[in-house]
Amino acid sequence: MDKASASGAGDCGFESHQGRSFFPTFFFIPRSFFQYQIALSTILIQQQFSPYFSHSSRCLLRVLDTFGTEPVFNYKKWKPEKDDHNHDYGHTWGNWELNPRQFWTMYPHTPDNSFLGFVVEQHRSTSSPPPPDSQKSLVYGKELYMWKGKSDYLSIIAKYFDVHATIGSTVGKRDKLDWSLVPSLVHNHGILGGAELQQLLQESRLFVGLGFPYEGPAPLEAIAQGCVFLNPRVDPPVDRTNSDFFKKKPTNRQIDSQNPYMAAFVGEPHVYTFNAENLTEVELTVQRILKQPRPPPYLPYEFTFAGMLERITAYLNNQQYCRPHQWPPSDSLVTRLSRPGVSCKQTCYDEGLVCEPELFHLLNNEEAFAKNGIECPSIQRGHSVHAPSLVTSDSHCSLQDDELMLSCAGSEKDVKRLCSCRQYRRGQVALCLSCSL
């Protein structure tokens, strides 16, 4: 299929930092629909074509979804247990009532969904490698508005490195743009072609995040060329209650750095996460980097060609939503009881595991509570986003009536959640240790 631009549809397809779509933003539905194993869609296509999908054909859909869709936004009938004026659960981008795993995301940030990802190509220049003491830095910010209020932060970087950028502008618009946002010490190359950008990354020691855009692919492209990514912490974290960017997105998750995946799954010496508003911390971070040898190029296996093909093969062979099928296998279940007020996503992560929603049904019964030493004076069934769980305020146990609502997300201060976790393959978080392809 041809790649198509997804500009103007940020929720609907995966885009690179230069506007290239990694996946098609449309698909053709043939007359004999059921000859196909799956049908790739986007959120925008869902809006346009949903009346044409029969109930029996919806199980074939796989929806490309950059920022993820949590179960509470997917289930039409769900209403919050308490008044919640900050959350619009019935908005345009949700209410599809698919199995949450049918949403395929760009990063593994929403375990209720499936991590599809993308491929980062590792172009290596035929020229001589840059010296280990390269003093170039490249700023991650191609639009002028991203540079607002960053002068002090960049002045610290400039004490140790030459500062380069690839800020774009078009003829006729240049005079209308506020170039005063960019410090005069910055050497701007403008928009570069792929090969030129790869060369500049190879020549640079640092790839400097400005705090936005969130969760883009560029930091992975940078560390694949040997750069160190400076990943600004976001404090307070942004979510749909305090950010226009996330306001209409069907997720309650909080973004606590420019790229949470890089902080959680990569880390030092390739990624340094810090408070960019604290200039002392910025300088100490840069000094720490300078004391270390330049790290070699690194790319997590799950973002290589082989890693993505392995993951897609596993999905095509094992994700079955048109008939009952258990995958991942039930023997991959690792049960954990959360602390009050902690989600299953965080509970599993804190123990080096990942939450696995396809195993929740094994815990959604009275026997599972007893097996895990949890006493339940009474049982309540319903559509609580926290079930299965123990409500500590009155010691009752909660079970889920609808499997579409079983979720890794969600927490409540007086609720201990019974969590379905699993181990995962190194460099391939989507697959369990015993998962077959």
UniProtKB/TrEMBL annotation:
A GO cellular component annotation in the UniProt record: Golgi membrane
Catalytic reactions of this protein: N(4)-{beta-D-GlcNAc-(1->2)-[beta-D-GlcNAc-(1->4)]-alpha-D-Man-(1->3)-[beta-D-GlcNAc-(1->2)-alpha-D-Man-(1->6)]-beta-D-Man-(1->4)-beta-D-GlcNAc-(1->4)-beta-D-GlcNAc}-L-asparaginyl-[protein] + UDP-N-acetyl-alpha-D-glucosamine = N(4)-{beta-D-GlcNAc-(1->2)-[beta-D-GlcNAc-(1->4)]-alpha-D-Man-(1->3)-[beta-D-GlcNAc-(1->2)-[beta-D-GlcNAc-(1->6)]-alpha-D-Man-(1->6)]-beta-D-Man-(1->4)-beta-D-GlcNAc-(1->4)-beta-D-GlcNAc}-L-asparaginyl-[protein] + UDP + H(+)
Glycosyltransferase family 18 catalytic domain boundaries: 45-421
Pathway of action: Protein modification; protein glycosylation
Annotated localization: Golgi apparatus membrane
UniProt keyword list: Glycoprotein, Glycosyltransferase, Golgi apparatus, Membrane, Signal-anchor, Transferase, Transmembrane, Transmembrane helix
Keyword Glycoprotein: yes
Keyword Transmembrane helix: yes
GO biological process: protein N-linked glycosylation
EC assignment: 2.4.1.155
InterPro entries: GT18_cat (IPR026116), MGAT5_Glycosyltransferase (IPR052105)
Membrane topology listed for this record: Single-pass type II membrane protein
One annotated GO molecular function: alpha-1,6-mannosylglycoprotein 6-beta-N-acetylglucosaminyltransferase activity
Sequence similarity: Belongs to the glycosyltransferase 18 family.
Name used for this protein in its record: alpha-1,6-mannosyl-glycoprotein 6-beta-N-acetylglucosaminyltransferase
Native species: Geodia barretti (Barrett's horny sponge)
